Each structure stands twice: as C-alpha cells, then as structure tokens.
User: Fold these one by one.
Assistant:
Number 1:
Amino acid sequence: MTQTAMLKDKSLSTAQQEARRRSRMLMAKRIGGQAYLWLLLVVLYAPILLIFIFSFTQSKVFGNWTGFTFQLYENLFTGYDSTAQVRVDPNLYRAILYTVLIAVAAACIATLLGTLAAIGLYNMRSRARKSITFLNSIPMINPDILTGISLFLLFVFLNISRGFGTVLIAHVVFCTPYVVLSVMPRLMQMNPNTYEAALDLGATPAQALRKVLLPELRPGMVSGFILALTLSIDDFGVTFFTKGSNGLETLSTFIYADARKGGLTPELRPLFSLIFLTILVLLVIMNIRTNKHLNKSKK
Amino acid sequence: MKKFTEIASARHTWAWPYVLFLVLFVVLPLLLIFYYAFTTPGGDFTIQNFVKFFHTSEAVNTLIYSMAIAFITTVICLVLGYPAAYIMAMAEFKTPQVMALLFILPMWINFLLRTIATVELFHMFGLPLGEGALLFGMCYDYLPFMIYPIYNTLQKMDRSLIEAAQDLGANKTNVFTKVILPLSVPGIYSGIVMVFMPTVSTFAIAELLTHNKITLFGSLIQRSFGEGGIAMWNYGAALSLIMLIIIAATSFFDQERDHDAQKGGLL
C-alpha cells in the first residue's frame, strides 16, 4: 500500500509542492494508523504466541524454558510421557471428547430447533412474533453466570441429577437464539410465494420443505451451526454450573480445575497451538476462496 | 395422521417446540431465581437474603468495586477500540475483512488459557498481579467486543455523507464530531454493553489474574453456590437477582441492539 503511494509520489515529480506535502501527510497518517493497529494486535497475540512458543519445551511449569523439543506433541498424541514414564492425564482426553460431543450435539439440536422456530416466527402475526423474539433474546443478553445459575436452580428444583444431559440442554439454550437470528435474514430475503407455489404445483409440505425452503435457508443454517459450535466449545460459565460433580469436564472446566490446583497440564500447550493453527489455516483458505469468488464475479 | 399434517402445514406452528423449550429452560429458571431469592431453605417467604446482603459491608463493597472495574474496563476499551475501529473502517486495505478477522481470531483460543498465558506474561516481565493485571486482562479479553460493533457501524455508514459535509465547507474536526461520531453512536452503545455486561458478571478470570487477591461480585455468587452448600443457595439467588437487575438496566441502554449484525458477523 505505502509502496505504491511512494511510486506515485516519484512519478508525480512535476506536480505542485502543495499536493506532494498533502500526500506525504496522508501517508504519514496512514502509517501511524497502521502502526497503532499492529501494536494492538501484537499485545492481543502476545499470550497466544507465548503458548505456542512454550509448546516446544518440555517443562511442566508454563513459562519455564528447558530447551527445544517436540516431546509435548508426542505426549499429546501417544497419551504417554516417555521421559517421566507416566500417562498423560486421561481426564484431558475425556474433556476433549466431551467438549466435541457436546458441541456437535448442541449445534445439531440448536440448528434443527432454531430453523423450525425461525420459519414459524416468520409466519406468525406480529404480536406473537415480537414476544417470542424477546424471549429468544434473553439467553443472548444474560451473562453466563446467570444462565448457569438459573438452570442450576431448575435442575435442583426438578430433582434432575446433573451431568451430560443437563450440560447439553444448557448449551442448546444459549446456542439456539443465534441460529434463529442467522436463519431469519434468509427468510426475509426469499420470495414468500415460492413455498406456496410448490404446494399448488402438487408438492407435499415435506417435499416443499426439502426442495424449496431448505436450499434457500442453508447458508443461514450453516453459519448458525458454526456459530453454535464455537459458542459451545468456548463456554465455561454455563457448563460450570450445570455439569454437576460426577466427574464430567469439558476443556474449559478442565483448564479451570487445573489452574486452581496450581499447575497446568503441559499437553494443553501443544493442543491449543494446534487448534489455533488449524483455525488460522481454515480462515486463510476461506479468505482465498471468497477473494477468488469476488474476482470471478467482477469479471 | 391427517390431523398432524394439517397442523404441520400451518407453518407458524413450527415454532411451538422452541417456544415450549424457551418457557421451560429460560423463563422458568429465571422465575426460580426470584423464588429462591425470596425464600428460606425451608421454602418460607423471606426478605432476609437481601437484608443480609445490605448488612454485609464486604458484599456491598464487592458489588461497588466490581461495577467500578467494569466501568473502567469499558472506558479503556472504548478509548483504545474506537480509534482502531475508525482506522480499520476508513483505511482502504486491499482486504479490509482480514484486519477485522485478525482482531477476532484470538477469541477462538479458550479464554481461560489465554488468561493464564497473560498471567505468565506478567510473571515474565516481573509485574505484580493486582488491580493492574486485572484491568489489563479484562481489557485484553473484551477489546474485540468493543472494536467489532463500532467497526460495523462505521463501515456501513454512507460515505457520501462525509463528502457532502466536506463540500459544504466542514473542516476535518467538524466532519468527525458532527457527522462520523453521531453516526457511530449505535455502535458505541453496543460496544459499551457488550463489554460492560460480561465484565460486571465475570467470575474465574479475576481469581486467575490476581491469584485470589481480588474478589469480584461474580465470584461471590459462584462461591455461595459452590463452597457454601445448600444453606447458601437462597442467598446466592438473591445476589443473582441483584446481578439480573443490573444486566436488565444495562440492556435498556441499548435497546435497538442488532445482535445479528454483531454476533453473526463474528464469523
């Protein structure tokens, strides 16, 4: 960006001095602005970089460098620490498994429930729609701790023992509103008569749903699903209050319990380094693809 | 069976399962907070839980302190975040969305782990873990929530309005204070709410960042449900109700919040 500006600066050597001074000021401003953004980003990424760097050293204590090695990565994948001759905490793997299971299940249920709800809401009279939309916004506004405690009280009140099922319900509670909001704009954009037209042309409601509605709603459902997935994986507060005490942990609550005990399981460092790299690569690919798409549509 | 297809073809009924779900798992639990807050462990009506709160100066101070921390965090995030959002929205990057993505990317790493890494960073630079660490950690965790909504409103802003103001003779300061700033107010409101609400209700982060030196209101609530045992649940519910009132008051501040644009845009 700045390079092209500089080239322009040279080629315009015949231009008036005033114009040059202005362009130079603009450039200085732009560089200053960019520098500020990069400074913020450096601070924002410093802790993540730290996790990444210390995933390549074996030290049990986070922040202690004891030489470069891939040992922690090996431990993570084999589940066995060959230097200390002990197994890697099996609870870590259970936590990973439960995190993924709960996230996928919650995202699936939320997508189904939310999509149906969005279609229903779209076809409702405005007063009913308004009050349900308000109800739908409560889990989004409510902070984790209140969602968690209110559900905790519900399960206590109904005498339901807490565990996998209660965590799953809790995750569906805070994921579904976002699915509803991702699907809604697609409904607003589509021609409301196409569904009726399909019925008039002899399609059964199920066929009309599958062949007319769903293809239109799919992008909204996909982004709602991914959003639900990330919200579920990242959750700590709600899980903390609904998981009960019979040993169910997700990665968040596992890390919390670990940190309170004093030491962090070292294998968490390579785990999250890999997660971060995966997401980075996915985003880069997505970006390249959308850019290609944009270029194509421009042509 | 025919009856079922009749019901199913009236599409407004498709929302019924979700409505039932919302009543059972959102409305009823919130009512239970009220119920527990105003009862004794035996189930009798009482306002003792609130009396106890207002008579425990430590608890009241914790609430005030938490609100102050949340307020300061919000102000710092606004001061740091507005310029960043402004620069991002105004600069003609080749790929503007990449910059925005870079600010959101850290959120994909578990925030507890990031917080622990921040603590480690403080250790490495020999900085003490106290109020400073707490504020830094909070700002660090929630800055993207301030930048994003402001960036969104600035980006959607009609650029020709700026040109119009310039053509009509407004200087740079005037263009900013009379055109850009007023137009970005909805984004600022959303940002303030999105930072203030989670910081005022946070638990866990404060303990980790200060090694249990500082207790926030959220941790106080958490403790009355965790270590306190059944006897403390009603008191905890009363504290939760106070928190609920704060949250409700804050959300009125930002009624036309466009959730879709913000959270949906995070992807």
Number 2:
Amino acid sequence: MSHPSTTLNFYSVAELCGRVHLDDPRPTVDLSNISFVEPFGLVYLGMFLRHFNNLGTFFNVVTPKSGAVSRYLESQKFWSRYNIATTATDARGHARFTSLSDIIDIDNNQYVADHVGDMVQDILRKNSVRVDVGRVTEVAVELVDNFSRHSGQELAACAVQLYRQRGELHFAVGDCGVGIRSSLAGNPLYQHLATVPHHQAALKALESGVTGSSEGGTGFETVREDVLQLGGQMCLCTGDGWVIIGGSRPGAEAGRMNYDLPGVQVEVKIPVEGS
Amino acid sequence: MMGKDRIVSLLDLSPSFATRRRGAETYVKLLPLLQDGPVVLDLDGIDLMPVSFLDGLMLRLIESGHSTDVSFKTTNPRAIDNLRRLSGLRNVDVFLYGPSGRPEKLEPRHPETLQVHYSDG
C-alpha cells in the first residue's frame, strides 16, 4: 500500500490520514504536496474529516501548493462541506452531478440509489462517454444501495471523474458508517466475522449471497463481476482492510493498512473507449 | 405456463428497476395479476435493471410459490445475463419467453470463485 506519491488516491490517502496527530487539540492535515486528486482520495479524505468532525475534532488544513488542486477543491466547496463545525446533517452541499468532475453529498433515503443511477446515466449520455452506460450505471446503483442499506449513516459522498487523456472513468462512494465487518456480523450466519481482519470480511462480502441483512448479497458480487467484464478495477477500503479487484493479479488482492477508518470507501475505474 | 400468454410490461408496475426495494415493490403490484394465472413480464424499454432488483422480486415470488408463474420477455443480452445470474444465485428455474412463444428455461450462471492474493502491506 505504500506508494509515495503526490497524488491523493487509493494508494496514498490512508497513509496521509495516518500521519495526522489526532492527539493534538486541533490536528493538522497537510496537503501541501498534493498535486493531483482522484475521486477515491477525495471521498476517503472527506469521510476522514467528517468522522472526526462528528466526534468533535476539527482540523487545520495546509492547502495544496498546487493552484489547480486548490482551485478545484474551492470549486467543489470541499472545505465548507467537510471539516466544518456543524453536524453531518448540516454539511450537505452539492447534491447533483453538474459535470464529470464532481463530488456530491448523497442523503440516505430509500430511493437514493435510483436518484444517483439517474444522475450517472444522464451525465454519461449527455457527455457521450464511450462506456457501457447501462452496466456502469448498474455498478454505481449497487454501490450507492450498499451505502443506503448497510452503512447506518445519513450521509455519504459520491464522486465522478472522467480522465479523457488517460481513457478512464472513476466513480467513488464513501461513508464513515459501520463498515463491512460489523454489517455482516449483524447477520447470525456471519457473526463469526466480528473478530476477523477487515479485509477478510470484505472478501466474504464479495461472495455471492453474502449479506448482513435478512436478504441480499447481490450488490458487491454484481460490482466485481461487472467491473471485470468492463475491463476495469475496483479498489475498496473498510476499516484497516483493503481489496483490489482487477488489479495487476487475477482475482482479488487484499491486505491491511496502517490506518483504520470506519465505514466503506470504494472506487471503480472503467476504461473509456476512443479517448 | 403455456396457453395463457398474458404479457405485462414491467414499465407499468414500477417507475424504477434499480434496487432490491423496487423489486419488492414490484412484487406487490404483480401479485394481484398472478391470482388470474401466469404472467409474462415484458422487460422491453428498461435500460437499468441490476440483479438486485430481480432478486428482490424473485425472492418474494419464491416465498409465495409463484416463481414458475412468471416468465420474462426480453432480447437485451445484459438482462438475459442478469436473469441467468439470478437463476444461479437462488437455484431457481427462470424462464425466458422466447421467439417460439413458449417459455424456455434459462441456463443458470454461477459466479466465478474469487481467487485471493494476500499482501503484507
């Protein structure tokens, strides 16, 4: 997991959060060397800030030296949506994707996955993004529905980014809720997972029919299959566990990292044709 | 199932087909129709219908003993693949209303076992 980089992404963000001295009265988050941000990095950082905001901790932020990153975060009103002295409920900011470079807040209601699915489908079509829009939208819906059904949280973050030159579409969803292990352990069938490492619980959740609820177990399995069929990649963190599907090795790669953030943060990267 | 080709557009039963919850809601709308016999659910015109939606519907059909009273009509390859996945997941017969005008049992598809590589860091 240790990939020294000035890009805030799956490989670097947990390490950055792990360097924050949480014992300080007002800890400092140092983003000065960040020259590029990816959806996973933003969603994870947002959830890190929000988790501690909810516990009454607020942060000094050293903003990026990079003007482009600073301007982007300002344009997203990132600092007025995360790291603010209000309840998470009051932190709602952007609620709709207005571009393919956006991070939004999503409210947990029974139809939030329908709502996000409509938005994703609309924005991909309007921008003529050359992907299997139906399958990508189904992936987005399943990830948001997982948050809605299992996180126990009122609010999550959701980000989309199209990298035309790189030929990739990224979609990320993050919450700071109960996480996969606690969610699964709520089902008597999987009570025994309550004490296993987080990444083992996450791998279990990727199996068919495995759920923390009375029914379900199709969401993550659908996502992992669809991402592979699309030739993409899924990166997931829950607690101190991480899983990558579609990485450099076939199947899943999994492990532990040095930082343990509650909830689930996940990103899918989908190749875009002809970019 | 044969002889009564009552084709019902799924579009008439729900405004969305995205989630398990919508599948459960669709079941409630479908149940009264099933009292009069088998139904062919026409999936034409539906862009988005993940396995979770189908599963939310099918689990209730199984519970109420109606799983073989419903067949599905679609030519969308993704929808057909999702129906095959559903069949494999729940070990239930799923029927596709084909060009022959008869419901044909879909071959179930089971997910691949996940090969796992553990990392230290």
